[in-house]
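Can't paste images in this forum, so I'm doing it all in text. The chain is below; anyone willing to post the predicted structure tokens underneath?
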Amino acid sequence: MSQSSTDDTVILPPSDSRSILPVMYAGTITVAALYFGQELMVPLVLAALLAFVLAPACNLLQRLRLPRVLSVLIVVALAFGAIGSLGVVVGGQATSLATSLPAYRTTITEKWNALSKGVGFIEQYTKGMTAKPDAGSAPAADKKPADNPAATLGLQDVSGLSLAKTLAQPLLGPLATGGIVLVFTLFILMSSEDLRDRLVRLVGRHDLHRTILAMNDAASRLSRYFLFQLALNASFGVLIGISLWFVGLPNPLLWGILAATMRFVPFVGVVVAVVPPLLLAIAVSPGWSLALLVLALFVGSEMIMGQVIEPLIYGHSTGLSPLAVIVATAFWALLWGPVGLLIATPLTVCLVVIGRHVEALAFLDVILGDRPPLTPAETFYQRALEGQALALAPAAAKQIATTSLTDYYDKVALSGLALAQGDLARDTLAFERLEAIHAQIEALLARLSADTVRPHAGAVETASLPDHWRREGAVICIPGRGQLDDLAATMAVQSLVADGFGARMEPNLVLGSARAMPANMDRTVLCCLSMLEEGSTVSGIRYFIKRIQKQMPQAVIVVGLWHAGRDSPLLSELRAEGGDEHLVLSLGELLAFCRATAARVPAADPSPALAEAESLPLTA
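Text version of the structure:
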């Protein structure tokens, strides 16, 4: 990406705009196939999800020395028998409810009159609705229903065969879908190893070991998740059903099954499930206590399940971002209707797990997963680019409180500086933007210094350091020539001060001549040359080292080449030359070197420090 230095206009390479077209075409074809092929895809997806749930039971029976085919047949028969039994129970409960509804008409009318009493416009509206019609038209209430139910339904002239067909037709679709799901489930469970091998050949033949481990891990995670989700939702339904039976609400089995089923729908499932039993409670009880009790049961049970039990089992998240859950639910409901609404979350979990294990589908994890899309270092650089670096201060202070200032600088701030230095070396960062970034990060470091720079829990106690290491200026940090090296030097100074060392930063101009040096630099025990790898050269580092040796011959020289890779050519060349300086790649290494040097140089006079420290092994 190139960037103008005048108006900050971002210019994308032409290949970027063209490369997205195949992705758009593939996405459009996939969505169209899912929509128009739902007659086949819905049973297949339901069977795959059911196979994940039943796979642990099949494996358990196989470990008991039962054949694979027999294990699958037993588990599938039990599962579909349980599903069929639930269907029978739901049908019976629904029929009983439909028969009892007319008996609740009086209670509903009394409560409606009680609510509408005293509200003028509602009262007028109800009076208008109950006024007597004109004489020319027969009142609807005066029409007596026919004694023959068939005449009421208009079926008096319909044959028995046609009537049976009319009544059975609504059941044929679900029964056909259930049969297809049964066949697919049997096929997936019996051929799971063959399907896995074929998938391995498609996505990971070049690295069988890692691919097989990843797929086994993904299958195990998905099986546990779906099994736990089914168990939790079933427990929720059982709790609701028993509670409603205990308080005396009719048809508690129906509402328990409805609650367990609707809980698969995120966010609004329980809200939808509570409406029918709440309306029934209003209808069957003369007062309002039963309705309030039903509402309290649903709310309390959902809070316990969602805020206590689920976090203990899943952790704090199922791996999906809240926005992804909402979008996925709307997407699958739009494609596949009520079935898509129920399976949206499990199906999205499958996609996220696949994205985490299959490199070609990693975009699914980025889009749908709950892991941060940017690393902490990338977020640090992004906030600095946007002029919002100070907004990072609360999160930084929290991380520093749990770890240390040095840890935050090493893992986040210095890595973010390295990203900025890389863009600067590639000429993709305008000079004006660089100044703004520098000012932003400098302000953040000042805030963190004021709030957190003090000896932390893991630091060397100040009293344990020799006096000449605790004096101000005992350790000098000098930045290199890079535009961001002074910020890295500031971080090094703050880390050293937090560890009890008397450290300060000096500009590299002090190495120009003896007259530019402060008066007390002859007391310096250690001098750290601080620079980022990108933009530094061996010749420039050697020049600074010679100037330091000339101006501070008594000081131990440490070169901080922050975040250089272990295979860095610059680092390899410095090592090959075998100079007297010591190399460190992180602030943690710098602190460890300073502690070791301070422990091995007990004399108050800093002059022998160089000879003593040179006997230490090279850090990097």
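The chain has 24 helices and seven strands. Strands lie at 2-3, 10-11, 475-479, 503-505, 526-532, 556-562, 582-584.
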